Write a sequence for this structure.
């Protein structure tokens, strides 16, 4: 496969990078996870049982697949945004806050559009989520471009602000559900809901139309990054900011745009949750998706297709993890440990190559240049 | 210590960088390694210094085969390399940089800097490598940084020193000092492999010359018996014409007018001081000067990358003092940045992507919000072909091109457009003689088509070969002006002006 826009022919190196390393990382992490279980006194039979449950809970049935994908969608959406940011050299920690703001805005817009038909209400609510996320992230971008404030710090602060803002707004009359004293929003009207896809099989299946939205966004992010002018600017600034400036690219504008696009995707992830899964906004509804999405973006090597697969993997671990807990009684924390181990291994490809030397071509083509 | 490369072949995927190379390096000799851009010189030396593993062949030291797993092994065996792009930590002192990686420790893991400083001092006096062990790297001129790189290798007790294009970044005076240093190293019995594109240098200091073409050794010779044209022909395989053909000087209207330009550096020091100059359409103006006298700041300001604190810049009658880099690009101002790796290229981008780095946004490459990559690749392939940028394909990463081909890529990008004013910083740095001749031809062609051309170069020969008017810059001002078409000027006079004698 020749992928010119990505800069290189899809060859052995790319295969190693994008497929073999993650695969071995998964294997190594599962193995270490088993060791951790054994070390904490879990019987070998239980370890086997828990991995069987992991498999069953993630891909073992229609219900499992539906749960895997439902968990994966917001991770992929937010992960795409983060990946775009990484490509532009921005380390955006703020997806969580952008999810909060986008998800809440989608609910508010959905409620406001309750009297319209679905083909207006749903897109309207999604758009509100995206735009709000974009603005929220844009603040950090603007601060960076205009004042040099580092985005890591400003996005962390914006996260904290968004949590408190959510708690506060959920108690304001405009948003709070009528007759409730606790912080909970009005329910999303049917017209603004992302329709469930598999209810014809089983009314409990949660997979919803956010699936299509996500797939479209994967394609859109790919196009943006590798086919568009804006994406070219993102990548150039991320790779060599000085050369980008010398080539006449506007550094400040690129930063603001990259943050805004990232925020729009995170906002969509939030809208995806409130309109597709939860049906309302509650305190903490973002559920750390924005932080897991950082791992998803890194695991996917900041490539839209990689993010898609990484998101599905994380969704599978989440869905399977719940099953593990039910069937084998092992702690959900273990799943967290395995997820973290996978990331550690992915982040250290040399380690993976050292453990599985036969999976890789011989090294020795260094990168030094004259 | 005698080093022998036997039947060395090095492949990068389908690219054969070195093919069946046999080469011997004797103690106490200077071996000059010569070859076109992309011939495989750096690769061969990277194999010798342990950075690359050879695909085939072996390295023998005093007749015994050795295998290097990395540069550490090579340096332990006594082979050290100074790369063209220095690998120093800018905020560390000289002594700290020298011991980096092999820190001598005293008791309780105490870093023994004192011993290191003493050793640096000893080495500098021994070989005439004058440098202050306590100076911070970033405050030192390039020539001195290079000495630090050499001391680093000597500190590791290397007997074979590989120097990859050491003189490309040096001023003429620094080159003279450098040649002295090489001589004293040889006298101490060290062997030197010296890579350069400057034929007079290689003739001056080497004891033996090996020529490499398309990965293979195609000849070797005695510098006492060879001449520049002979060497050039050996390198490229056909005779090279050193003279630049030029139409008679026929300047037209003023195209670039700089009035009272004052620029300050990031640290607040004045870089360019109330400078005025004009470039006419159809004229090549060359700015000579020792590096660090404000030339870089001037170029950056003209390219729209540095705001002046005072003064006015007019291009073709339009005030462009506050115009952005993009706007100037649109008006037909081409800019070849001095530092290709830092500012001219994106190493991880493909040749095609780099070829449109500053023109992707408009026709014919842009298509709405998208980029027509098919068109870009076609165009890039054509331009690469025309400028002889040697690359396996337009999909290759720019970082994988040889140093000279990276430079050609930048020059090709800037000159292949429709231009009206060309601002060129060190346009031929690191290029082989054939490529230099070609780039000079292109610059002359631009002039003959009525472009204004402003060249800044530390190569006095280049300035003299190309310029219709030569300006000497010293401490941010123009201190001398010569018009070679009126009265011949000689190098000595300009050299004196460069050293500030005219003020
Ligand atoms: N890491 C790499 N990956 C792929 N190709 C490479 C790599 N390094 C070098 N090459 C190729 O090997 C060939 C020789 O390159 P090398 O850098 O050795 O040339 P050189 O003789 O040093 O040229 P120059 O004078 O321009 O520096 C070139 O065609 C180059 O594209
Ligand atoms: Mg080289």
């Amino acid at each position: 496969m020749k992928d010119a826009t990505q800069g290189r022919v899809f060859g052995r190196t790319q295969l190693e990078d994008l497929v073999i390393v993650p695969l071995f990382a998964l294997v190594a992490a599962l193995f270490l996870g088993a060791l951790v279980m054994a070390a904490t006194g879990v019987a070998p039979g239980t370890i086997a049982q828990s991995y069987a449950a992991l498999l069953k809970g993630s891909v073992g049935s229609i219900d499992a697949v539906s749960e895997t994908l439902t968990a994966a969608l917001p991770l992929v959406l937010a992960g795409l945004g983060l990946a775009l940011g990484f490509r532009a050299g921005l380390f955006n920690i703020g997806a969580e806050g952008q999810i909060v703001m986008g998800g809440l805005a989608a609910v508010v817009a959905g409620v406001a559009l309750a009297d319209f038909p679905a083909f207006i209400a749903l897109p309207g609510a999604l758009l509100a989520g995206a735009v709000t996320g974009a603005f929220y992230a844009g603040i950090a971008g603007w601060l960076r471009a205009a004042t040099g404030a580092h985005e890591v710090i400003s996005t962390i602060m914006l996260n904290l602000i968004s949590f408190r803002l959510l708690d506060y707004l959920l108690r304001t009359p405009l948003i709070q559900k009528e007759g409730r004293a606790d912080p909970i929003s009005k329910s999303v009207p049917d017209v603004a809901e992302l329709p469930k896809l598999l209810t014809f099989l089983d009314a409990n299946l949660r997979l919803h139309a956010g699936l299509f939205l996500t797939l479209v966004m994967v394609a859109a992010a790919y196009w943006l990054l590798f086919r568009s002018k804006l994406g070219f600017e993102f990548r150039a600034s991320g790779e060599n900011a000085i050369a980008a400036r010398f080539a006449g690219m506007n550094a400040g504008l690129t930063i603001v745009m990259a943050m805004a696009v990232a925020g729009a995707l995170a906002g969509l992830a939030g809208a995806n949750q409130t309109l597709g899964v939860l049906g309302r906004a509650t305190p903490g509804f973002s559920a750390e998706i924005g932080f897991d999405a950082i791992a998803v973006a890194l695991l996917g090597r900041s490539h839209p297709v990689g993010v898609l697969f990484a998101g599905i993997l994380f969704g599978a671990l989440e869905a399977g993890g719940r099953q593990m807990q039910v069937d084998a009684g092992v702690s959900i924390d273990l799943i967290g440990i395995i997820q973290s181990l996978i990331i550690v291994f992915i982040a250290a490809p040399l380690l993976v190559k050292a453990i599985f030397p036969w999976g890789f071509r011989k090294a020795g083509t260094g990168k030094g240049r004259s | 210590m005698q080093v022998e490369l036997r039947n060395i072949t090095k492949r990068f995927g389908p690219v054969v960088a070195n093919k069946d190379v046999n080469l011997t390096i004797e103690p106490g000799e200077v071996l000059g390694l010569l070859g076109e851009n992309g011939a495989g010189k750096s690769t061969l030396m990277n194999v010798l210094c342990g950075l690359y593993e050879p695909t085939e062949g072996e390295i023998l030291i005093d007749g015994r085969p050795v295998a290097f797993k990395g540069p550490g092994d090579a340096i332990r065996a006594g082979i050290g390399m100074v790369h063209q792009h220095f690998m120093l930590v800018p905020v560390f002192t000289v002594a700290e940089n020298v011991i980096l990686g092999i820190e001598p420790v005293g008791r309780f893991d105490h870093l023994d800097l004192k011993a290191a400083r003493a050793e640096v001092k000893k080495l500098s006096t021994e070989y005439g490598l004058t440098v202050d062990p306590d100076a911070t790297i970033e405050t030192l001129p390039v020539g001195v940084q290079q000495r630090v790189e050499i001391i680093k290798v000597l500190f590791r007790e290397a007997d074979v020193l590989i120097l990859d294009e050491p003189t490309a970044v040096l001023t003429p005076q620094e080159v003279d000092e450098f040649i002295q240093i090489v001589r004293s190293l040889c006298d101490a019995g060290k062997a030197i492999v010296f890579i350069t594109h400057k034929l007079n240098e290689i003739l001056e200091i080497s004891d033996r010359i090996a020529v490499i073409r398309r990965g293979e050794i195609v000849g070797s010779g005695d510098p006492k018996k060879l001449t520049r044209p002979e060497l050039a022909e050996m390198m490229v395989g056909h005779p090279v014409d050193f003279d630049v053909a030029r139409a008679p000087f026929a300047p037209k209207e003023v195209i670039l007018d700089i009035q009272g330009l004052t620029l300050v550096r990031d640290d607040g020091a004045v870089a360019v001081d109330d400078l005025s100059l004009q470039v006419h359409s159809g004229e090549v103006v060359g700015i000579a000067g020792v590096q660090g006298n404000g030339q870089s700041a001037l170029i950056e300001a003209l390219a729209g990358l540095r705001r002046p604190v005072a003064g006015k810049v007019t291009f073709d009658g339009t005030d462009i003092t506050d115009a952005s880099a993009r706007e100037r690009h649109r008006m037909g101002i081409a800019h070849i940045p001095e530092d290709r790796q830092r500012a001219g290229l994106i190493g991880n981008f493909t040749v095609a992507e780099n070829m449109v780095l500053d023109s992707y946004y408009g026709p014919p490459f842009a298509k709405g919000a998208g980029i027509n990559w098919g068109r870009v690749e076609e165009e890039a392939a054509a331009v690469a072909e025309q400028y002889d940028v040697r690359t396996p394909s337009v999909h290759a990463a720019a970082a994988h091109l040889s140093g000279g081909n990276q430079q050609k890529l930048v020059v090709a990008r800037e000159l292949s457009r429709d231009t009206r004013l060309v601002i060129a910083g060190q346009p031929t740095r690191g290029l082989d003689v054939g490529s230099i001749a070609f780039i000079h031809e292109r610059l002359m062609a631009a002039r003959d088509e009525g472009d204004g051309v402003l060249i800044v170069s530390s190569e006095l020969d280049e300035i003299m070969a190309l310029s219709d008017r030569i300006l000497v810059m010293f401490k941010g001002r123009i201190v001398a002006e010569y018009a070679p078409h009126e009265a011949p000027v000689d190098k000595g006079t300009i050299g004196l002006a460069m050293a500030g004698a005219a003020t």
